Amino acid sequence: MRQERVVEPHPDPVDVRLGARLAELRAERAWSLGELAERSGVSKSTLSRAERAEISPTASLLNRLCAVYGRTMSQLLSEVEAEPAVLVRSAEQVVWEDRASGFVRRSVSPPHSGLRGELVEGRLAAGADIAYDRPPVPGLEQHIWVLDGALAVTARDEEHHLDAGDCLRLRVWGPTRFRCAGPDEVRYVLAVVLP
């Protein structure tokens, strides 16, 4: 009987750079994995595996780490890019996927740490539901413009139903939830402005 060897897929290059940056951020603060686990509410083993790119971090996990490090997700993801640019062609925009939740995130704006605003394209698969327990930066301003499909956004215990063309503006102080509210994928633009 012949046994086949299971070969693990190579980690995504973005996940490798992201893991290295997460490890750098923790080292800059001289925190142990235990200290980061206490601050973020994420287990030490998950943090360790994310830093070593053994797992692809979920949107929820990155959101918790962004909150601890005082960054938006776009800022964190832009830090794993080689150099900031003024123009980013569509084919060169960073796309990150949370396969577990059905969330795909495209960084549309050219990354720049000195700017307060950014544009992100989000896509949620039918049935996808993402809950964030806190904003990456308290008071973060968000403008959510639905391009295709239907999206339900919950903030401050109030659910807002958005159809194609609708736009919701809010400041994020606590938990939020993004849910695909239709039978098909939803695609939306998220404009994020730091306070």
N-to-C CA distance: 64 Å
Query: Helices and strands, in N-to-C order?
Result: HHHHHEEEEEEEEEE
- Computed CA radius of gyration, to the nearest angstrom: 17 Å
What is the number of strand segments? 10
Major sheet: size, sense and barrel closure?
Answer: 6 strands, antiparallel
Contiguous helical run count:
5
Task: Please report which band the strand proportion falls in: under 5%, 5-15%, 15-25%, 25-35%, 35-45% or over 45%.
Answer: 25-35%
Strand order of the largest sheet: 1-2-3-10-5-8
Portion of residues in helices? 25-40%
Assign an overall shape.
Answer: globular
Look at the structure and give the mean pLDDT: 88
- Given helix and strand content, the structural type is alpha+beta
Low-confidence stretches: 1-8
Task: Please give a structural write-up.
This protein has 5 helices and 10 strands; from the N terminus they run H-H-H-H-H-E-E-E-E-E-E-E-E-E-E. Helices cover 25% and strands 31% of the residues. By secondary structure, the chain is an alpha+beta fold. The strands form 2 sheets. The protein has a 6-stranded antiparallel beta sheet.
Short characterization:
The protein has 195 residues and is an alpha+beta fold. The protein has helices spanning 13-28, 33-40, 44-51, 59-69, 73-78, and strands at residues 95-98, 103-107, 117-124, 129-132, 140-148, 150-155, 158-163, 167-172, 176-180, 186-193.
